[in-house]
Amino acid sequence: MSYLIINGPNLNALGHRDASHYGTLPLAAIQERLQQRAAELGVEVAFFQSNWEGALIDHLQKHGPVAQGIIINPGAFTHYSIALRDALADLQTPIVEVHLSNIHAREEFRRRSVTAEVARGQVSGLGWYGYLLALEYLVRLNASALG
Fold first, then answer.
1. What is the pTM of this model?
2. Does the annotation mark 137 as catalytic?
3. Which of 11, 76, 88, 117 lies 20 to 30 Å from 49, alpha-carbon distance?
4. Tell me, what's the pLDDT at 81?
């Protein structure tokens, strides 16, 4: 089974951004931890990051329909990208939105997520560990649906 892990704008700069919000791990280290956990769970993960809204949408439209689940950190697109929201809504694939920081405890403009409305759930404020929780949830969701 294959799961998509999608990261939006500025997440390629992890490790250099404000550590109080985003932690100190670079994106490659988070992906390495996810790859290791996926192997333990007996599933495959595919990573994609872009600073461009259209690239995220194109990737979701191409790969989303055949994925078993999608973990997405839309970055700043979380708060205003109706186009990304619509691309996610068009998928039948289960989606979990992840944020490293607690978006509900930050600036007012960061507290609203237009993309969470089309996700099964949201993990916010648990740092890189939120990605692992999302992966474990999606794997268990598929296991219970299959058996």
1. 0.93
2. no
3. 117
4. 95
- Choosing from 22, 79, 104, 131, the catalytic residue is 22
User: Per the structure, how many domains does the chain have?
Assistant: 1
- pLDDT value at position 94? 98
CA 145, CA 103: separation in Å to the nearest integer? 31
pLDDT in tens, 80-136: 899 999 999 999 999 999 999 888 777 776 678 899 999 999 999 999 999 999 999
Q: What tokens were used for 117?
A: 């409305």
Q: Where residue 10 sits, what CATH number does that domain have?
A: 3.40.50.9100
Q: How many CB atoms lie within 10 A of CB 53?
A: 18
**Residue 66, burial from CB neighbour count under 10 angstroms (0-12, 13-18, 19+):** exposed
Which domain range does residue 26 map to? 2-146
Instruction: Give the span between the Cα atoms of 117 and 14, in whole angstroms.
Output: 26
- pLDDT average, residue stretch 53-76: 97
Of these residues, 99, 104, 129, 131, which one is catalytic? 99
124 contact partners, CB below 8 Å, separation of at least 6? 97, 98, 99, 101, 102, 103, 104, 130
